[in-house]
Design brief:
2 domains, HTH-type_TetR-like_transc_reg (chains A, B), Arc Repressor Mutant, subunit A, repressor (chains A, B), DNA-binding transcription factor activity (chains A, B), elongated, DNA-binding (chains A, B), mainly alpha, homodimer, 74% helix, transcription (chains A, B), Tetracycline Repressor, domain 2
Amino acid sequence: MAGDRTTPGMRGPYRKGVERREQIIRSASEVFGELGYFGGSLRTIGDRVGASPATLTQYFGSKEGLLAAVLEDWQRQAGRGLLQDDPLGLEYFRALIRVTEFHVEHRGLLELFITMAADSTNPGHPAREFIQRRYADVLGNCTAKLREAVDRGEVAPMSDEQIEAEVRILIAVLDGLELQWLLGADIDLPALATRYLEHAITCWQSGRSIS
Amino acid sequence: MAGDRTTPGMRGPYRKGVERREQIIRSASEVFGELGYFGGSLRTIGDRVGASPATLTQYFGSKEGLLAAVLEDWQRQAGRGLLQDDPLGLEYFRALIRVTEFHVEHRGLLELFITMAADSTNPGHPAREFIQRRYADVLGNCTAKLREAVDRGEVAPMSDEQIEAEVRILIAVLDGLELQWLLGADIDLPALATRYLEHAITCWQSGRSIS
Protein backbone atom coordinates (compact mmCIF):
# COMPACT_ATOMS: atom_id res chain seq x y z
CA MET A 1 0.00 0.00 0.00
CA ALA A 2 2.73 2.46 0.98
CA GLY A 3 4.36 1.69 -2.36
CA ASP A 4 1.37 3.19 -4.17
CA ARG A 5 1.93 6.53 -2.62
CA THR A 6 5.69 7.04 -2.56
CA THR A 7 7.49 8.16 -5.66
CA PRO A 8 9.90 5.54 -7.03
CA GLY A 9 13.47 6.73 -6.97
CA MET A 10 13.01 9.05 -3.98
CA ARG A 11 16.21 9.39 -1.98
CA GLY A 12 16.60 7.25 1.17
CA PRO A 13 16.09 9.64 4.11
CA TYR A 14 13.21 11.52 2.49
CA ARG A 15 11.51 8.30 1.46
CA LYS A 16 11.88 6.96 5.00
CA GLY A 17 10.19 10.08 6.35
CA VAL A 18 7.26 9.68 3.95
CA GLU A 19 6.80 6.04 4.93
CA ARG A 20 6.99 6.90 8.63
CA ARG A 21 4.33 9.57 8.12
CA GLU A 22 2.04 7.05 6.42
CA GLN A 23 2.56 4.49 9.18
CA ILE A 24 1.50 7.08 11.74
CA ILE A 25 -1.58 8.07 9.71
CA ARG A 26 -2.64 4.41 9.42
CA SER A 27 -2.20 3.91 13.16
CA ALA A 28 -4.16 7.09 13.92
CA SER A 29 -6.98 6.02 11.54
CA GLU A 30 -7.30 2.72 13.42
CA VAL A 31 -7.15 4.31 16.86
CA PHE A 32 -9.60 7.14 16.09
CA GLY A 33 -11.96 4.55 14.54
CA GLU A 34 -11.76 2.37 17.65
CA LEU A 35 -11.60 4.94 20.46
CA GLY A 36 -12.90 8.16 18.89
CA TYR A 37 -10.84 11.33 18.48
CA PHE A 38 -10.85 12.37 22.12
CA GLY A 39 -10.29 8.79 23.31
CA GLY A 40 -7.38 8.15 20.96
CA SER A 41 -4.25 9.61 22.57
CA LEU A 42 -1.01 10.43 20.76
CA ARG A 43 0.61 7.89 23.07
CA THR A 44 -1.69 5.04 21.97
CA ILE A 45 -1.27 5.99 18.32
CA GLY A 46 2.52 6.21 18.65
CA ASP A 47 2.82 2.97 20.64
CA ARG A 48 1.41 0.94 17.74
CA VAL A 49 4.22 2.07 15.45
CA GLY A 50 6.97 2.52 18.02
CA ALA A 51 6.98 6.32 17.95
CA SER A 52 6.81 8.81 20.83
CA PRO A 53 4.13 11.50 21.15
CA ALA A 54 6.93 14.02 20.50
CA THR A 55 7.69 12.39 17.14
CA LEU A 56 4.00 12.58 16.18
CA THR A 57 3.89 16.27 17.07
CA GLN A 58 7.07 16.81 15.03
CA TYR A 59 5.40 15.30 11.96
CA PHE A 60 1.89 16.79 12.30
CA GLY A 61 2.24 19.84 14.54
CA SER A 62 -0.57 18.78 16.88
CA LYS A 63 -3.26 16.16 17.43
CA GLU A 64 -5.62 18.29 15.31
CA GLY A 65 -2.99 18.35 12.57
CA LEU A 66 -2.83 14.55 12.70
CA LEU A 67 -6.65 14.38 12.51
CA ALA A 68 -6.59 16.60 9.41
CA ALA A 69 -4.06 14.22 7.79
CA VAL A 70 -6.22 11.22 8.75
CA LEU A 71 -9.35 12.76 7.21
CA GLU A 72 -7.47 13.75 4.04
CA ASP A 73 -6.15 10.20 3.75
CA TRP A 74 -9.68 8.82 4.37
CA GLN A 75 -11.05 10.98 1.57
CA ARG A 76 -8.35 9.80 -0.85
CA GLN A 77 -8.89 6.14 0.03
CA ALA A 78 -12.69 6.34 0.04
CA GLY A 79 -12.41 7.98 -3.39
CA ARG A 80 -10.90 4.74 -4.74
CA GLY A 81 -14.31 3.14 -4.12
CA LEU A 82 -16.02 5.57 -6.48
CA LEU A 83 -16.28 5.14 -10.22
CA GLN A 84 -13.82 7.24 -12.13
CA ASP A 85 -16.35 8.24 -14.78
CA ASP A 86 -19.42 10.32 -14.03
CA PRO A 87 -22.58 8.27 -14.71
CA LEU A 88 -25.67 10.20 -15.76
CA GLY A 89 -29.00 10.33 -13.90
CA LEU A 90 -30.17 7.03 -12.41
CA GLU A 91 -26.92 5.23 -13.30
CA TYR A 92 -25.17 7.49 -10.79
CA PHE A 93 -27.29 6.05 -7.97
CA ARG A 94 -26.59 2.46 -9.03
CA ALA A 95 -22.87 3.28 -8.98
CA LEU A 96 -23.24 4.93 -5.56
CA ILE A 97 -24.81 1.81 -4.10
CA ARG A 98 -21.92 -0.29 -5.38
CA VAL A 99 -19.73 1.76 -3.02
CA THR A 100 -21.22 -0.28 -0.16
CA GLU A 101 -19.30 -3.30 -1.57
CA PHE A 102 -16.09 -1.30 -1.21
CA HIS A 103 -17.10 -0.43 2.37
CA VAL A 104 -17.66 -4.08 3.27
CA GLU A 105 -14.16 -4.84 2.01
CA HIS A 106 -12.66 -1.86 3.87
CA ARG A 107 -14.41 -2.01 7.20
CA GLY A 108 -11.80 0.20 8.89
CA LEU A 109 -12.51 3.15 6.60
CA LEU A 110 -16.23 2.86 7.25
CA GLU A 111 -15.75 2.54 11.01
CA LEU A 112 -13.57 5.65 11.02
CA PHE A 113 -16.16 7.64 9.08
CA ILE A 114 -19.15 6.59 11.19
CA THR A 115 -17.24 7.18 14.42
CA MET A 116 -16.08 10.64 13.29
CA ALA A 117 -19.61 11.53 12.10
CA ALA A 118 -21.20 10.55 15.43
CA ASP A 119 -18.35 12.25 17.34
CA SER A 120 -19.04 15.41 15.33
CA THR A 121 -22.58 15.71 16.64
CA ASN A 122 -20.59 17.59 19.33
CA PRO A 123 -20.55 21.15 17.94
CA GLY A 124 -16.99 21.68 19.22
CA HIS A 125 -15.50 18.63 17.50
CA PRO A 126 -12.50 19.37 15.25
CA ALA A 127 -13.80 16.96 12.54
CA ARG A 128 -17.24 18.62 12.40
CA GLU A 129 -16.49 20.99 9.53
CA PHE A 130 -15.01 18.18 7.43
CA ILE A 131 -17.99 15.90 8.11
CA GLN A 132 -20.52 18.68 7.41
CA ARG A 133 -18.77 19.51 4.12
CA ARG A 134 -18.76 15.82 3.19
CA TYR A 135 -22.53 15.53 3.81
CA ALA A 136 -23.16 18.76 1.89
CA ASP A 137 -21.14 17.42 -1.08
CA VAL A 138 -22.96 14.07 -1.14
CA LEU A 139 -26.34 15.83 -0.82
CA GLY A 140 -25.43 18.29 -3.57
CA ASN A 141 -24.19 15.58 -5.97
CA CYS A 142 -27.19 13.30 -5.42
CA THR A 143 -29.65 16.17 -5.75
CA ALA A 144 -28.12 17.25 -9.05
CA LYS A 145 -28.20 13.65 -10.36
CA LEU A 146 -31.84 13.08 -9.42
CA ARG A 147 -32.73 16.41 -11.06
CA GLU A 148 -30.81 15.17 -14.11
CA ALA A 149 -32.84 11.92 -14.08
CA VAL A 150 -36.05 14.00 -14.03
CA ASP A 151 -34.82 16.22 -16.88
CA ARG A 152 -33.82 13.17 -18.95
CA GLY A 153 -37.29 11.70 -18.47
CA GLU A 154 -35.92 8.66 -16.60
CA VAL A 155 -38.28 9.32 -13.69
CA ALA A 156 -41.53 11.24 -13.19
CA PRO A 157 -41.43 15.00 -12.45
CA MET A 158 -40.52 15.98 -8.88
CA SER A 159 -40.26 19.31 -7.08
CA ASP A 160 -36.89 20.42 -5.65
CA GLU A 161 -38.30 19.82 -2.21
CA GLN A 162 -39.30 16.24 -3.09
CA ILE A 163 -35.88 15.61 -4.59
CA GLU A 164 -34.15 16.78 -1.43
CA ALA A 165 -36.39 14.57 0.72
CA GLU A 166 -35.70 11.51 -1.48
CA VAL A 167 -31.95 12.11 -1.37
CA ARG A 168 -31.81 12.73 2.39
CA ILE A 169 -33.71 9.50 3.00
CA LEU A 170 -31.45 7.55 0.63
CA ILE A 171 -28.36 8.85 2.47
CA ALA A 172 -30.03 7.98 5.80
CA VAL A 173 -30.73 4.41 4.60
CA LEU A 174 -27.07 3.94 3.63
CA ASP A 175 -25.70 5.37 6.90
CA GLY A 176 -28.22 3.49 9.00
CA LEU A 177 -27.69 0.11 7.31
CA GLU A 178 -23.91 0.58 7.54
CA LEU A 179 -24.26 1.25 11.26
CA GLN A 180 -26.36 -1.92 11.72
CA TRP A 181 -23.77 -3.92 9.77
CA LEU A 182 -20.87 -2.52 11.82
CA LEU A 183 -22.76 -3.44 14.99
CA GLY A 184 -22.81 -7.06 13.85
CA ALA A 185 -26.23 -7.40 12.19
CA ASP A 186 -26.45 -10.51 10.02
CA ILE A 187 -27.25 -8.69 6.77
CA ASP A 188 -25.93 -8.59 3.22
CA LEU A 189 -25.28 -4.84 3.23
CA PRO A 190 -24.82 -4.26 -0.53
CA ALA A 191 -27.84 -6.46 -1.35
CA LEU A 192 -30.15 -4.71 1.12
CA ALA A 193 -28.99 -1.25 0.00
CA THR A 194 -29.58 -2.26 -3.64
CA ARG A 195 -33.09 -3.51 -2.80
CA TYR A 196 -33.93 -0.16 -1.24
CA LEU A 197 -32.54 1.76 -4.22
CA GLU A 198 -34.39 -0.35 -6.80
CA HIS A 199 -37.60 0.13 -4.80
CA ALA A 200 -37.01 3.89 -4.68
CA ILE A 201 -36.31 4.02 -8.44
CA THR A 202 -39.56 2.14 -9.16
CA CYS A 203 -41.43 4.68 -7.02
CA TRP A 204 -39.69 7.62 -8.72
CA GLN A 205 -40.53 6.20 -12.15
CA SER A 206 -44.19 5.72 -11.36
CA GLY A 207 -44.60 9.15 -9.71
CA ARG A 208 -44.96 7.71 -6.20
CA SER A 209 -42.13 9.64 -4.59
CA ILE A 210 -42.16 10.57 -0.92
CA SER A 211 -44.29 13.69 -0.59
CA MET B 1 -36.05 16.32 37.53
CA ALA B 2 -34.22 14.87 40.51
CA GLY B 3 -37.46 15.29 42.43
CA ASP B 4 -39.13 12.79 40.13
CA ARG B 5 -36.77 10.09 41.13
CA THR B 6 -36.15 10.52 44.83
CA THR B 7 -38.69 9.30 47.31
CA PRO B 8 -40.27 12.13 49.33
CA GLY B 9 -39.49 11.83 53.00
CA MET B 10 -36.13 10.12 52.56
CA ARG B 11 -33.76 10.97 55.35
CA GLY B 12 -31.16 13.72 54.77
CA PRO B 13 -27.83 11.92 54.30
CA TYR B 14 -29.31 9.12 52.19
CA ARG B 15 -31.22 11.55 50.04
CA LYS B 16 -28.09 13.63 49.55
CA GLY B 17 -26.25 10.53 48.36
CA VAL B 18 -28.99 9.73 45.83
CA GLU B 19 -28.95 13.28 44.48
CA ARG B 20 -25.16 13.26 44.24
CA ARG B 21 -25.32 9.99 42.32
CA GLU B 22 -27.82 11.50 39.88
CA GLN B 23 -25.69 14.61 39.37
CA ILE B 24 -22.74 12.41 38.46
CA ILE B 25 -24.83 10.33 36.03
CA ARG B 26 -26.08 13.49 34.32
CA SER B 27 -22.55 14.84 34.00
CA ALA B 28 -21.29 11.50 32.65
CA SER B 29 -24.15 11.37 30.11
CA GLU B 30 -23.16 14.80 28.82
CA VAL B 31 -19.45 14.04 28.73
CA PHE B 32 -19.82 10.62 27.06
CA GLY B 33 -22.20 12.20 24.51
CA GLU B 34 -19.67 14.96 23.76
CA LEU B 35 -16.35 13.12 23.96
CA GLY B 36 -17.26 9.42 23.64
CA TYR B 37 -16.68 6.82 26.33
CA PHE B 38 -12.92 6.57 25.93
CA GLY B 39 -12.56 10.33 25.54
CA GLY B 40 -14.63 11.17 28.63
CA SER B 41 -12.36 10.85 31.66
CA LEU B 42 -13.55 10.47 35.25
CA ARG B 43 -11.72 13.75 35.92
CA THR B 44 -13.72 15.67 33.28
CA ILE B 45 -16.98 14.12 34.49
CA GLY B 46 -16.18 14.88 38.13
CA ASP B 47 -14.97 18.44 37.44
CA ARG B 48 -18.40 19.44 36.12
CA VAL B 49 -20.04 18.59 39.46
CA GLY B 50 -17.13 19.34 41.78
CA ALA B 51 -16.32 15.71 42.59
CA SER B 52 -12.97 13.90 42.46
CA PRO B 53 -12.33 10.76 40.36
CA ALA B 54 -12.04 8.88 43.69
CA THR B 55 -15.58 9.94 44.64
CA LEU B 56 -16.89 8.69 41.28
CA THR B 57 -15.17 5.33 41.79
CA GLN B 58 -16.63 5.16 45.30
CA TYR B 59 -20.17 5.59 43.87
CA PHE B 60 -19.88 3.41 40.75
CA GLY B 61 -16.97 1.03 41.32
CA SER B 62 -15.27 1.85 38.02
CA LYS B 63 -15.68 3.82 34.80
CA GLU B 64 -17.48 0.81 33.31
CA GLY B 65 -19.82 0.82 36.31
CA LEU B 66 -20.57 4.49 35.67
CA LEU B 67 -21.23 3.71 31.98
CA ALA B 68 -23.69 0.99 33.00
CA ALA B 69 -25.52 3.52 35.21
CA VAL B 70 -25.55 6.06 32.35
CA LEU B 71 -27.03 3.52 29.90
CA GLU B 72 -29.64 2.39 32.45
CA ASP B 73 -30.61 6.02 33.04
CA TRP B 74 -30.74 6.62 29.26
CA GLN B 75 -33.09 3.68 28.85
CA ARG B 76 -35.38 4.95 31.61
CA GLN B 77 -35.46 8.47 30.21
CA ALA B 78 -35.87 7.39 26.56
CA GLY B 79 -38.74 5.20 27.75
CA ARG B 80 -40.63 8.35 28.77
CA GLY B 81 -40.82 9.21 25.06
CA LEU B 82 -42.73 6.02 24.29
CA LEU B 83 -46.45 5.61 24.57
CA GLN B 84 -47.51 3.79 27.67
CA ASP B 85 -50.12 1.71 25.87
CA ASP B 86 -49.27 -0.84 23.21
CA PRO B 87 -50.78 0.23 19.86
CA LEU B 88 -51.71 -2.53 17.42
CA GLY B 89 -50.27 -3.07 13.95
CA LEU B 90 -49.73 0.10 11.91
CA GLU B 91 -50.64 2.39 14.81
CA TYR B 92 -47.48 1.16 16.55
CA PHE B 93 -45.34 2.62 13.75
CA ARG B 94 -47.12 5.97 13.86
CA ALA B 95 -46.44 6.08 17.63
CA LEU B 96 -42.81 5.10 17.04
CA ILE B 97 -42.31 8.02 14.64
CA ARG B 98 -43.71 10.41 17.22
CA VAL B 99 -40.70 9.46 19.37
CA THR B 100 -38.60 11.64 17.03
CA GLU B 101 -40.43 14.67 18.50
CA PHE B 102 -39.23 13.61 21.94
CA HIS B 103 -35.69 13.25 20.55
CA VAL B 104 -35.74 16.78 19.12
CA GLU B 105 -36.74 18.08 22.54
CA HIS B 106 -34.09 15.97 24.31
CA ARG B 107 -31.11 16.38 22.02
CA GLY B 108 -28.64 15.25 24.69
CA LEU B 109 -30.26 11.80 25.01
CA LEU B 110 -30.12 11.33 21.25
CA GLU B 111 -26.52 12.51 21.02
CA LEU B 112 -25.52 10.08 23.76
CA PHE B 113 -27.23 7.18 22.00
CA ILE B 114 -25.78 7.90 18.53
CA THR B 115 -22.30 8.43 19.98
CA MET B 116 -22.44 5.20 21.98
CA ALA B 117 -23.80 3.28 18.96
CA ALA B 118 -21.00 4.51 16.67
CA ASP B 119 -18.43 3.95 19.45
CA SER B 120 -19.71 0.38 19.75
CA THR B 121 -18.77 -0.46 16.17
CA ASN B 122 -15.50 -1.23 18.03
CA PRO B 123 -16.01 -4.89 19.03
CA GLY B 124 -14.24 -4.31 22.37
CA HIS B 125 -16.45 -1.40 23.48
CA PRO B 126 -18.11 -1.85 26.88
CA ALA B 127 -21.43 -0.43 25.59
CA ARG B 128 -21.58 -2.83 22.62
CA GLU B 129 -23.70 -5.50 24.30
CA PHE B 130 -26.22 -2.89 25.51
CA ILE B 131 -26.44 -1.31 22.05
CA GLN B 132 -26.76 -4.67 20.29
CA ARG B 133 -29.54 -5.72 22.69
CA ARG B 134 -31.28 -2.40 22.10
CA TYR B 135 -31.21 -2.88 18.30
CA ALA B 136 -32.37 -6.49 18.67
CA ASP B 137 -35.31 -5.34 20.84
CA VAL B 138 -36.38 -2.62 18.41
CA LEU B 139 -36.04 -5.01 15.46
CA GLY B 140 -38.02 -7.69 17.29
CA ASN B 141 -40.82 -5.31 18.32
CA CYS B 142 -41.18 -3.74 14.88
CA THR B 143 -41.10 -7.11 13.13
CA ALA B 144 -43.86 -8.44 15.39
CA LYS B 145 -45.98 -5.31 14.80
CA LEU B 146 -45.63 -5.44 11.01
CA ARG B 147 -46.53 -9.14 11.11
CA GLU B 148 -49.55 -8.12 13.21
CA ALA B 149 -50.52 -5.50 10.59
CA VAL B 150 -50.36 -8.22 7.91
CA ASP B 151 -52.45 -10.62 10.02
CA ARG B 152 -55.04 -7.90 10.71
CA GLY B 153 -55.32 -7.23 6.98
CA GLU B 154 -54.08 -3.65 7.37
CA VAL B 155 -51.40 -4.24 4.75
CA ALA B 156 -50.84 -6.72 1.92
CA PRO B 157 -49.25 -10.12 2.66
CA MET B 158 -45.45 -10.11 3.14
CA SER B 159 -42.90 -12.85 3.76
CA ASP B 160 -40.87 -12.83 7.01
CA GLU B 161 -37.85 -11.90 4.96
CA GLN B 162 -39.65 -8.91 3.41
CA ILE B 163 -40.85 -7.81 6.84
CA GLU B 164 -37.31 -7.88 8.21
CA ALA B 165 -36.01 -5.87 5.24
CA GLU B 166 -38.77 -3.24 5.66
CA VAL B 167 -38.08 -2.91 9.38
CA ARG B 168 -34.29 -2.71 9.01
CA ILE B 169 -34.69 0.05 6.43
CA LEU B 170 -37.16 1.95 8.62
CA ILE B 171 -34.72 1.81 11.56
CA ALA B 172 -31.92 2.93 9.20
CA VAL B 173 -33.99 5.91 8.02
CA LEU B 174 -34.61 7.02 11.62
CA ASP B 175 -30.96 6.64 12.69
CA GLY B 176 -29.66 8.26 9.52
CA LEU B 177 -32.02 11.27 9.64
CA GLU B 178 -31.27 11.75 13.33
CA LEU B 179 -27.55 11.79 12.52
CA GLN B 180 -28.10 14.40 9.77
CA TRP B 181 -30.14 16.51 12.18
CA LEU B 182 -27.50 16.29 14.92
CA LEU B 183 -24.87 17.36 12.39
CA GLY B 184 -26.83 20.55 11.81
CA ALA B 185 -28.92 19.75 8.71
CA ASP B 186 -31.77 22.20 8.24
CA ILE B 187 -34.57 19.62 8.36
CA ASP B 188 -37.82 19.12 10.24
CA LEU B 189 -36.85 15.71 11.62
CA PRO B 190 -40.30 14.50 12.81
CA ALA B 191 -41.96 15.73 9.59
CA LEU B 192 -39.43 14.01 7.30
CA ALA B 193 -39.57 10.77 9.32
CA THR B 194 -43.38 10.86 9.13
CA ARG B 195 -43.27 11.39 5.36
CA TYR B 196 -41.08 8.32 4.96
CA LEU B 197 -43.34 6.21 7.18
CA GLU B 198 -46.54 7.26 5.41
CA HIS B 199 -44.91 6.47 2.07
CA ALA B 200 -43.82 3.05 3.38
CA ILE B 201 -47.33 2.34 4.70
CA THR B 202 -48.85 3.22 1.31
CA CYS B 203 -46.40 0.79 -0.34
CA TRP B 204 -47.15 -1.93 2.23
CA GLN B 205 -50.88 -1.48 1.70
CA SER B 206 -50.68 -1.72 -2.06
CA GLY B 207 -48.34 -4.73 -2.04
CA ARG B 208 -45.33 -2.74 -3.26
CA SER B 209 -42.99 -3.57 -0.40
CA ILE B 210 -39.21 -3.73 -0.85
CA SER B 211 -38.43 -7.11 -2.36
